[in-house]
Amino acid sequence: MCQVFWWAIAALVGLSILLGTTESVGFIAALMAGVAMAVFGGLVLTRLFCTKGLQHQNRTTSDETDPTPVETQVKDSVTVAAETAKAAANETAERTKDAGAEVAKAAEATVEATADTASDAAETVVEKADKAVDDVTKATSKAEQEGEDAPQSADDGARPQGLDGPRDGNADDLKQIKGVGPKLEQLLNEMGFYHFDQIAGWSADEVTWVNENLKGFKGRVTRDDWIEQATTLAQGGETEFSKRVEDGTIY
């Protein structure tokens, strides 16, 4: 009865360890720790409190059989319990290591998948942006082409009379008119306009025609008021802008 009692006590201790540590270390590790403690406690408690009965039984045995000292049995029990606990700890460590490796592998796979998805999305956005730019460029070019190639109607004015070349071979510096740069001066010369008095003499219809036919510079005659500037320059006068051109501060 003595041994049954103390083994029951040890079993209760082991059960308490199982219930108290399952949540923190897992069921397997808690079970092995509880069993180890129950075995250890049962052996120790029975040896400590039931030794009198064992000694009496040992004295009735043959003199040739030496009883095992209580200290030795306790030491063996401790060794067994320690080995059991060590085995449980090692198994728990292996399980934790394997679980960590699986978690790391899953995390790496998730990161790679996310990176691939982000890369695909970025490429799609870039492709759509490029397509949108191409569409806008094509539409703009088409509109400009249609505007330049559109036939002139009666409302587009009348073409001014041009010259085959500058008088006496000396053309006026049309760049002294604000709004006329080197490129636009060349275009005006190609259209037969070399002198200030030609521009100053344009009628309203002729201004309309020139405005519509200055490719890339439509509306510039009216917007920069060429007629007034050309009239002043044709009469030998100067403007603030023409002075700066003569001084070389503009071109």
How does this model look, in words?
- The relative contact order is 0.06.
- The protein starts with a helix and ends in a 5-residue tail after the last helix.
- Helix 1 packs antiparallel against helix 2 and helix 2 runs antiparallel to helix 4.
- The protein folds into two domains: 2-119, no CATH class; 157-246, no CATH class.
- With 251 residues, the chain is mainly α.
- It is rod-shaped and about 145 Å long.
- The chain has helices spanning 2-25, 27-49, 51-60, 70-149, 182-190, 196-200, 204-213, 220-223, 226-234, 240-246.
- The longest helix is centred in the middle third of the chain and has 80 residues, at 70-149.
Please name the defining characteristics of this protein.
251 residues; mainly alpha; 2 domains; rod-shaped
